[in-house]
Amino acid sequence: MPDRIASLECFAVAPRWAFLKVTTDEGLVGWGEPVVEGKAHTTITAVEEFADQLVGTDPDRIEDAFQVMYRGSFYRGGPVLMSAISGIDQALWDIKGKRLGVPAYELLGGAVRDRIAAYSWVGGDVPTRAAEMAQKRLPEGWTAFKMNGVERFGYLETPAAVDRVVAKVAAVRDAVGWDFGIALDFHGRVRKGMAKTLIKELEPLRPMFIEEPVLPEQGDALADLAARTSVPIAAGERLYGRWGFQRLLEQGAVDIVQPDLSHAGGLWEVRKIAAAAEARDIAVAPHAPLGPINLAASLQLDFCTPNAAIQETSMGIHYHTGEVGVLEYVADDAPFKLDGGCFVRTDRPGLGIDIDEDKVRHAAESGHRWRNPVWRHGDGGVAEW
Question: Which of 31, 9, 15 is nearest to 363 (CA)?
Answer without folding.
Answer: 15
